[in-house]
Structures are given as C-alpha cells and as structure tokens.
C-alpha cells in the first residue's frame, strides 16, 4: 500500500492485502470492509503538503504512534457514508446523503505569473470604477429626487374664492368653437354629432390647420375653422375656467410637445476627449515598451550562457514550450510591469475634483438670489471645465434676458405725448418731478379730444388680454379700478398687458370680455360695450393685428396696431410725420414702439370682410397663404391715430453680461419664439445689437419678395465684401476696423434652409453652408418665431460645424429644454415659467447676470486647474515608469521590478495624489476680481489651448528627461557600490528606493513651483505628503511585518539615509531635474510673457491690489516694436507727444524684462512728499489712458 492516491473518499469491498485497482479512491484514509474474523486494519495514507486533509491515519506498525487519528481531541463533526446509496433502517438516524467533491485534477494557474502582485495592478482600477460609479450614482439620485418632487407634488385648486397657490401671469388665450359653446354638460355633449378634419402631427407649436363639421338636423354639416387658438397643448393649465370639454387630437409621442422633445445624451467635455486621446498615445507607448523589451530579451538570451545559466536551469516543460508562446507570455508580463504608465488614478482624481469643485459654484454668495432664496445648482459636475471653453452662447429672451415685466412709458396721439402718471392732456401731473420734458407738446385742445379718446379705446379693444377676476396673487389683491372688482390682466404677450394697464392709468379701463362683448370704463366711470366680431391675429410676416368691433350705436370699427413699417404704408390720413418723429425718437431710446390706426366700416363692407375671412379659414390646404391674402385686402386705407412706447425691463446687468461675453470672444445668439420686432428691441436694449450694427434680415417677408437662393447669396456677398475670406472669428468683435453685422432670421426661413433637398437651387450650392458662413461673419444673431425643436436644430448645426465650437444654451422655460439638452453645456434659469428647464439642465442659476461669473471666473478656474491636473498626471507617470523601462537593460530583461510593491501601489494613491487634487481645487493663477474686470483673459484659454499637442509633448519629454536623470544619476553615483561607512554594499532594492525617493520629491516640488495661490492648506498637503512618504518608508522598512511572505525592504530605507553620499545624491538629482523647467519658465516669462504672466507680475508688484487701481488694458501684450541696428527699441510716437496741460505721472516698471513706460492721467494721487510710501497711493476713478 505504498501508492499515493488523490481523490474523494472511497470504499473498497476487498481484503486489506488486496491490490488497489482504481486510482480514483481516496487518499484521505480508505476504510476497508472485511469478512468475519479478519482483523481490521487501516491502509497507509500519505498527503502532499499542499492538499488539505480531513484527518491523517497511519498503520498499527508505525513507530511511536497509536491506532488513532491525529487531531481527534478536537473532533467536532463526523461523516456517514451509505453504501450503494441505500437508506438505513427506519428509526436509526436521518438519511442525509453525502456530497463528494469532483475528482478532476487542476494544476494550472488562473493568472499569468506576473512580476508584480495582482493586487498592486488591480486595486487602483477597482478604486477608479468604484469612485466613478458612486459619483455618477449620487448625481442621478439628485435628479431622481428632483423628478419625484414634481411627479408627486399635490394639486392645488381655487375653492370658495380662495387662491391657495401662486398663479402665472403669462397666459395664452384659447377659444371654443362658437357652435359648441352651448354644450355645458356631459349629457349634452353626448348628443353632439360632428367630425374633425386636421393635418397630421407636426412639431410647429404655433400652427394648426383643421376644420370641424357639425351635423345638425339638416343633411349638410356646418363647417367651422380650427386654428392654433383652438388647440390646447399638452401640459397646459386652465386659468380662467373651472373645467372644459375637449377632443383629443394628438396623443402620446404624436403630441406637439412630444415631437419637440430632445433625447438626452451623455455629454463629454473637450478636456475628457483630450484625456482619452492622450491615453491612446500612452497605450501605444506601453505596447511599444513591451514589444521592445520582449524583442531585446530574446536577443539577450541568444547566448546559451545567458538563456540558461548554471544557477537557473530550465525545466523540461519550459524547454519544450514553443518560442512564440514564451514570447507572448513575456510580452504580457512586460505589459503588466509597465502598465503604471497609464494614469488610471487620474480618472479618480478628475472625478473627485469635478465633484468637490462643483460646490464652489453652489457656495458662491455672489450668485445667491435673496429675492427667491435660491443658490445655483449643479446637476452635472462632469462639465465644469467646459464652462471655460464656451464659444457660442444661445439664450432665450423672455424670462432669461428680460424680467418679463413690461411697462408703458408713453404714447403719442397726433404728435401730443401722454405719459402715464406724469402727463395727460398736455398737463404735468403731480409726482412727475425730474422727468425730461423735451418734445412734450401742449394740450391737444377740444378738436383733438375725440381722437385722443378713440386712441385710448383702440388700445383697450385691440388685444387678446384676459381678465382674472377676484384673484389673490402672493396674498395681495390686485384691483383694476378702485371700488370695483379686484382683478388682474393676463396675456400671452406681456406688452399687451402693459398697454392695457397704461390705458387704465390714463383713465380708460378694460373690464372684461363677456358673451362676445368687450367692456371698458371711460374717464367718466361710464361702461361702454363693444361686440367683438373678428380678430385678425398677429403674425411675424404682417407684423400687426386687427380687431373688428361694433359699438352700442351700431357703428363698425376696425382697429389695427403693429410695427411702424407695417402701419405707415397702409395709412391714408393722419399726422404721419409728427408720429413718425416720435417713433424714431423712442426707437433710439431702446423702447418698443407700436403704431395705432383705425377705419370705419359700413355694414356691406363688414359682410364682405366676413365672407372673405370665412372662405380662407375653412381651407385645409394653403390656409396661411389664403389668410395672408385676405388680411392684405382687408387691412388698408387706415387713419393714423398715434403710437406707443413700451419698455421691456431687462434683467439686472443683462446688458453688461452680454457685453462681457462679447469681449471674452463668445458669440451670443438669441433664440426666441417672440415676434421679430419685440426680440429686436430687446437685442438693442441688451447691447446684443448696437446702433452701428448693420442688420441683415433673412425672414419670410424677404423670401417672398426674392427667392431664398438669391437672398442668401446677397447676404453672403454683403458680409464678405469687406472681410474677404476672413471670418468674424479673426476680429475681436470690438474693433472699429470692420463693420458689425447682425442677422435676424425667423423659424419658417430656417426650416427652408435646413431642408435636406433644396428646390430651386440653381447653382447646386448648400444653403446650410452659406447660412453658416453668413453667421460666422456676424457679431450677433437673432432667431425669432422659433419652435423648441428648431432651437435645438440651430444649436446642433453650430455644434457639428467644421470648427466644432463649444456651445452653451440658457433658458427658463419648458420650450428651452431641447436646446439645453443639445448644447455642450445647458443652463436653466429658475424663473417664473417653472423649473423644467432647471431640472433638465447641467447647471441652474437664478439670474442671467450670474452667467458672467460662472463663465469668466469659475469656468476659467476650472479649466486652468484640470488642464494642469491632466498634464501633471501624465508627466509624473512617465517619471515613475520610465526608470523601470531603463532598469530592464541592466537586469537582463528579467522583468525584475525596480520599486517595491508598496511603492508601486501607493505612488498614485497616497504619495502624489493629494497635492495635485488640492491644486485642482484651490489654484487661482489670477485674482478673481481681475478676471471679472477683464473678460478678454477668457480668450487666453479658448479652444482648449492648455491641452494642445505641443503642450502635451512638452510635458511628456519633461517627464522623460527627469526620469533619465533619476535613473542614470543614481546609477553613476552607485558606480562605487560601497556607500556605507562599514563597507556594506547597496543592493537593487536600495537603488530602487533611492530612485523612488528622488522621484517623489521631484514631482511634488514641481507642483509646488507651478502653484501661484498659496494657502496654509497647500503648505500642509504638499509638505505633509513628503513627510508622509518618509514616515511610511521608515515604518515599512523598520518593522518585520508578519503578514508578508518576504522582508526584502527590511532596513533598506534607514540604511540609505545613513549614507552621506545618498543624501547628496538625492539633493543633487532633485535640483538637476527641476532646473531645466525652472530656466524655461524664467526665460519665457522674461522674453515672451503672456498676458496672464504680466498680470501676475503686476499683481505681485502691487501686493495683491492690482484690481483696485491698475488699468488692465495696459497689461496686455503690446504690438511688436521695430528695432534699430543697435538693438534698441524705436521710439513710440506716443512718447514723443508733448505733455498736456494736466500734470501726468510717469510710472516705470519692468514688463517682461524690458523697460516699459505707462502714462496715467488723473489716476494716482501722490502726496506732496516726493519720498512717498505705498500708503500714499489713494484710489480715484480712472482717467483717460495714454496709449503705449
């Protein structure tokens, strides 16, 4: 029984001396069954030391052993084997079959025998995935909470006259069909027999073409037109009625709102794309290193004495393995050895930096809105650095640029000016002190009073305003007329509300629309009723609206209001020139102007108008065209009454924000659903358009006069005539050397441009490309009458153009969600139109003005920090692993690690991670106030300038240089191996520890040299990291750790530090490694300083107070000066000018190593004492600056 068997427990039915026939029997003790009378015996069983055994038994003949089992005193369990799987007799014991392990033998390993520990390589990757998953999950959880807050919110209603929630002041008016208004109960509607014919689902929110056929007792149905005013969109809220009965036309994804939805996609920043590109380069470097070392290993082993030395003979299996298999195994081993060049931990640091850095936006007190008590929200921290790369800003108008709160400033009737609460009938009212009274005419007199009242009545009747009766808004009752019912005005157009409220202050009050009758209250508190017969709605082509009413006396009036360009050509009488002069004056002031006209209709004329309108409204094909023709026939031969001027209040500092964005090199586009005149007036007020801007129109009105092809090519020739082949990007946008162009386009024209198949394109050109070329040469673009999906299409068109610019979209309403999701960065404003935009955005702010600091300060900092982080990580990993590559040339390509396993694991996790993380959170290379004052600094980081390939290559070669210094410096200094005083030789682990020590100190001090903004936290982390490395190395090598199966690092670090030459080597190698980068920085800063470096130098000169009293324009790079033969700078003409009579102080400083004189006028007040101190400078308002 000398055989050794491995397998499961087995039982044989033979005598003890019988031969064993099956190797599948157990080696963990075989139980032998015997015949009666035989002496039981145990077979001799042996175990290999790597096979666990349940117990071990020996024969009775073994010396010094009893017939027992070792470990029997600790017996806790037993095993019962049922022969033949037969159950025991009943009543003996429970039958529990024994389960046996499989008998297969597995001697192969699951992983390659790598030169480093699997834990060393796998732990950082596992850490990266875990941290990323936690961060992304947390942000999704925040979004989920926001969604639930809306989905599970209770419904509030108005009961018993009490309003228990705030009502929106923006309303669009919808009408029921006249013939179905009488049906008020479900039973009555059950008797309705009718059909609806309409168009197929379309995404246009402002268009609906349909017809309802109502079948009564007669055979022929009554046909009534259906338009957009009859279609209630999904998500609409009832305001002026308790309930309605309606017919579902479009449902689900066929509804107009659903057709405008934009699918949400994963957004990736430009920095992240650069990181991935760099990662591919380093992956290629990793593969190249592994291939080179694999090839050189077999070149090295071509000598038999090197391939199989006497002290390391190969086994027979190793000799028989194919050379390709061995080469592939070695290649994989080198991949594992060099895999640390891939900065896996960089992704963890980037995720942490983005997540923690996002709180700086939320904690910014300057962006806190005290009015609503809200702070900015960060829904997606992955795009923080993208805020510093924005090139195009797409913004909504109403509620984003404006407060959506308009006010009537004045009106003009036949040249006589009326200002609510200030001037009426030519008389200055109390409380009007301090107003500019220029161009205010005297009282119109008795003859003009009739026309004056007709003008006021026109504005009280020509609108779509609704009245909300007895409403309480924010706990405050709003009354229309003192002593009358408390009500408020609501409308889809805020300027209509402003006009009606202005008329109320001038004595004419609109009360209500009741039973198709409009009721107004005149100055004598007498109620006047006018029957509303027809409404000719506003459209962007006509740019006017009209109503036809009938007075109590039976007279028919047609009132019309609209843009001056659409009213004046249709006027036949009135004081046109006086009104035109006032309109032009108000336009210069940035006010929104409307002209008002009227005409009387006879009964016959009214019948003709009704017949013409009904014929056009019932058409299912080309309804818009037929209505336009009918309107053109009806709206003519007017008598001019006057004009109005309405101020659409911009949000606080909205104009300053847009101007700053322009200076920062960004192009601002306004995308709005409003009409062109309204949007254009806002663009002028917000300084998107300037008075010197030449406006180019690409609208439906113009394309009706000319073909789209001709219009596009005319505009293209106009903008390229001066610029030539240069695009607007070449210019600063503020230069006076070129004409500023502004483009206005409407939704209908944009749809024609974006059609895939262009009809009538005679030259076969691409309309889209021509349109993009026009836009590139325009300083600003206004897109009006845009559907939500069209907003997203414009953003996508710019985003996917050949330049691939970074886009930002900002809006406050649900109709802005599509463009917010489409843009690289989406920002929602927590405004009056709900929170849907804020919930679907990447960032949410309370006011448009906060966009300035978010981009110019936070975006600038985020990009600077993460760009340094990315480049630094690749640099320090090259420094880390390239010495390992060089080490293979000196160890026979044996895949021997240079560093200890602990150092390999902790280098990126502990020793060098915290300093760069803190740098990426705290660094401020330029003062925050300077960034806000000088938006042009934003241009210095545009187009991913800090992560371009030349910069990346510089950092990589810097890492290679430092790594070469680490390795060969230590190698040559180790040429004399007896470094210690007792003559003991240093080994390979001491060599690797010395290289690693120089490495850790060098990369940490490199970051310290790049740090501009120092705080106590920086000092603590940077010097604390170095101290932690030293303490860890002392503990790691000073204790025999019981859990390690090796003690190769024992006393290595202490032995190295006990050597004076080792200390000298460390200091010398650190200095040599850092010296080239330091010299390069000093030389470049002295010879070719950037604007940022100049400001840093100036800020140091003024001890951190540069932003208080230095004109930043003087710090920008001056134009190149010509030099004479002697190398001296030629005199600037500005220096040869004679001094003015006002005393000027000359300031002398070194800018970039050259003498540079700046002349300031009325800027610094210097005391009488010529030997003044720094405290003698007093800040005054900056005076005119002499150019240099």
From TrEMBL:
Active site (record annotation): 396
Pfam families membership: Cation_ATPase (PF13246), PhoLip_ATPase_C (PF16212)
Enzymatic reactions: ATP + H2O + phospholipidSide 1 = ADP + phosphate + phospholipidSide 2
One Gene Ontology cellular component: recycling endosome
Annotated segments matching region Disordered: 1112-1142
Membrane topology field: Multi-pass membrane protein
Protein name, UniProt field: Phospholipid-transporting ATPase
Originating organism: Triplophysa tibetana
């Amino acid at each position: 029984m000398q055989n050794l068997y491995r397998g499961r427990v087995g039982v044989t039915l033979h005598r003890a001396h019988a031969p064993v026939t099956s190797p599948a029997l157990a080696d963990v003790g075989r139980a032998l069954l015997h015949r009666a009378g035989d002496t039981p015996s145990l077979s001799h069983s042996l175990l290999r030391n790597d096979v666990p055994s349940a117990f071990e038994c020996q024969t009775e003949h073994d010396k010094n052993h009893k017939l027992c089992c070792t470990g029997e005193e600790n017996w806790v369990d037993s095993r019962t084997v049922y022969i033949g799987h037969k159950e025991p007799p009943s009543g003996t014991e429970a039958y529990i079959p024994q389960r046996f392990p499989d008998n297969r033998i597995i001697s192969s390993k699951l992983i390659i025998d790598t030169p480093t520990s699997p834990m060393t390589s796998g732990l950082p990757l596992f850490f990266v995935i875990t941290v990323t998953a936690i961060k992304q999950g947390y942000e999704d959880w925040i979004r989920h909470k926001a969604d639930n807050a809306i989905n599970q919110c209770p419904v509030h209603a108005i009961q018993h006259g009490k309003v228990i929630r705030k009502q929106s002041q923006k309303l669009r008016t919808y009408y029921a069909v006249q013939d179905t208004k009488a049906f008020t109960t479900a039973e009555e509607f059950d008797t309705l027999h009718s059909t609806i014919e309409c168009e197929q689902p379309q995404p246009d929110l402002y268009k609906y073409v349909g017809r309802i056929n109502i079948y009564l007792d007669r055979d022929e149905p009554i046909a009534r037109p259906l338009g957009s005013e009859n279609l209630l969109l999904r998500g609409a809220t009832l305001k002026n009625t308790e309930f309605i009965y309606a017919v579902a036309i479009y449902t689900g994804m066929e509804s107009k709102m659903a057709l405008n939805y934009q699918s949400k996609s994963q957004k990736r920043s430009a920095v992240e794309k650069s990181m991935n590109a760099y990662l591919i380069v380093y992956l290629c470097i990793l593969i190249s290193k592994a291939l080179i070392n694999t090839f050189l290993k077999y070149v090295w082993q071509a000598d038999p004495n090197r391939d199989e030395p006497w002290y390391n003979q190969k086994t027979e299996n190793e000799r028989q393995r194919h050379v390709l298999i061995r080469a592939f195994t070695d290649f994989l081993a080198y991949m594992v050895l060099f895999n640390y060049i891939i900065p896996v931990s960089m992704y963890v640091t980037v995720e942490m930096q983005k997540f923690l850095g996002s709180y700086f936006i939320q904690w910014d007190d300057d962006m806190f809105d005290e009015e609503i008590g809200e702070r900015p929200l960060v829904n997606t921290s992955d795009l923080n650095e993208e805020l510093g790369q924005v090139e195009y800003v797409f913004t909504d108008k109403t509620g984003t640029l404006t407060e959506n709160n308009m006010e009537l400033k004045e009106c003009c009737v036949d040249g006589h000016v009326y200002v609510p609460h200030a001037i009426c009938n030519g008389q200055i009212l109390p409380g009007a002190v301090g107003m500019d009274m220029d161009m205010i005419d005297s009282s119109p007199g008795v003859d003009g009073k009739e026309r004056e009242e007709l003008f006021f009545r026109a504005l009280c009747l020509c609108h779509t305003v609704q009245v909300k009766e007895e409403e309480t808004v924010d706990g405050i009752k709003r009354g229309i007329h003192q002593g009358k019912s408390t009500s408020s005005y609501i409308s889809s157009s805020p300027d209509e509300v402003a006009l009606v409220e202005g008329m109320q202050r001038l004595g004419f009050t609109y009360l209500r629309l009741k039973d198709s009758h409009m009721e107004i209250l005149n100055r004598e508190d007498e109620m006047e009723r006018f029957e509303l017969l027809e409404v000719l709605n506003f459209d962007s082509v006509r740019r006017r609206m009209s109503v036809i009413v009938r007075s109590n006396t039976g007279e028919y009036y047609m009132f019309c209001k609209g843009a001056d360009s659409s009213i004046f050509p249709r006027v036949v009488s009135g004081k046109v020139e006086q009104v035109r002069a006032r309109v032009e004056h108000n336009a210069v002031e940035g006010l929104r102007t409307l002209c008002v006209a009227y005409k009387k209709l006879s009964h016959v004329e009214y019948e003709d108008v009704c017949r013409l309108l009904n014929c056009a409204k019932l058409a299912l094909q080309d309804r818009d065209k037929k209505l336009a023709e009918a309107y053109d026939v009806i709206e003519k031969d007017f008598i001019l009454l006057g004009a109005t001027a309405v101020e659409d209040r911009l949000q606080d500092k909205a104009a300053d924000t847009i101007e700053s964005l322009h200076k920062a090199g960004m192009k601002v586009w306004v995308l709005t659903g409003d009409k062109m005149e309204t949007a254009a007036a806002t663009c002028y007020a917000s300084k998107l358009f300037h008075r010197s801007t030449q406006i180019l129109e690409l609208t439906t009105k113009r394309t009706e006069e000319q073909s789209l092809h001709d219009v596009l090519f005319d505009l293209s020739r106009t903008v390229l005539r001066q610029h030539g082949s240069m695009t607007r990007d070449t210019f600063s946008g503020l230069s006076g050397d070129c004409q500023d162009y502004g483009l206005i386009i409407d939704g209908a024209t944009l749809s024609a441009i974006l059609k895939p198949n262009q009809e009538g394109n005679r030259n076969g050109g691409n309309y889209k490309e021509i349109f993009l070329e026009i836009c590139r040469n325009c300083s600003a673009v206004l897109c009006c009458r845009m559907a939500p999906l069209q907003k997203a299409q414009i953003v996508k068109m710019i985003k996917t153009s050949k330049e691939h610019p970074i886009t930002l979209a900002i809006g406050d309403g649900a109709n802005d969600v599509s463009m917010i999701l489409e843009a690289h960065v989406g920002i929602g404003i927590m405004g009056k139109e709900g929170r849907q935009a804020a919930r679907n955005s990447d960032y949410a702010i309370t006011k448009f003005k906060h966009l300035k600091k978010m981009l110019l300060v936070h975006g600038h900092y985020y990009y600077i920090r993460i760009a340094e982080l990315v480049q630094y990580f690749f640099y320090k990993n090259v420094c880390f692993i390239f010495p390992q590559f060089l080490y293979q040339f000196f160890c026979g390509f044996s895949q021997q690690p240079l560093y200890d396993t602990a150092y390999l694991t902790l280098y990126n996790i502990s020793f060098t991670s915290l300093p760069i993380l803190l740098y990426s959170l705290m660094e401020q290379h330029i003062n925050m106030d300077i960034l806000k004052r000088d938006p042009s600094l934003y241009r210095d980081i545009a187009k991913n300038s800090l992560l371009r390939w030349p910069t990346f290559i510089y950092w990589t070669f810097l890492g290679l240089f430092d790594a070469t210094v680490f390795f060969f410096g230590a190698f040559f200094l180790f040429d004399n191996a007896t470094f210690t005083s007792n003559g003991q030789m240093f080994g390979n682990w001491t060599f690797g520890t010395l290289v690693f020590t120089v490495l850790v100190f060098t990369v940490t001090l490199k970051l310290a040299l790049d740090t501009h903004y120092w705080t106590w936290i920086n000092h603590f982390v940077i010097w604390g990291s170095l101290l932690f490395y030293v303490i860890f190395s002392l503990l790691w090598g000073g204790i025999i750790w019981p859990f390690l199966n090796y003690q190769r690092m024992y006393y290595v670090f202490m032995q190295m530090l006990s050597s004076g030459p080792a200390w000298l080597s460390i200091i010398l190698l650190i200095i040599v490694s850092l010296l080239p980068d330091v010299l390069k920085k000093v030389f470049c800063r002295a010879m070719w300083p950037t604007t940022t470096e100049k400001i840093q130098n100036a800020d140091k000169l003024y001890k951190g107070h540069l932003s208080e009293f230095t004109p930043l324009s003087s710090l920008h790079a001056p134009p190149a000066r010509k030099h004479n033969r002697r190398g001296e700078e030629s005199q600037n003409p500005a220096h040869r000018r004679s001094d003015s009579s006002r005393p000027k102080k000359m300031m002398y400083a070194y800018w970039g190593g050259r003498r540079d004189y700046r002349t300031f006028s009325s800027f610094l007040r210097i005391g009488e004492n010529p030997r003044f101190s720094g405290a003698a400078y007093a800040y005054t308002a900056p005076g005119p600056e002499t150019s240099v």
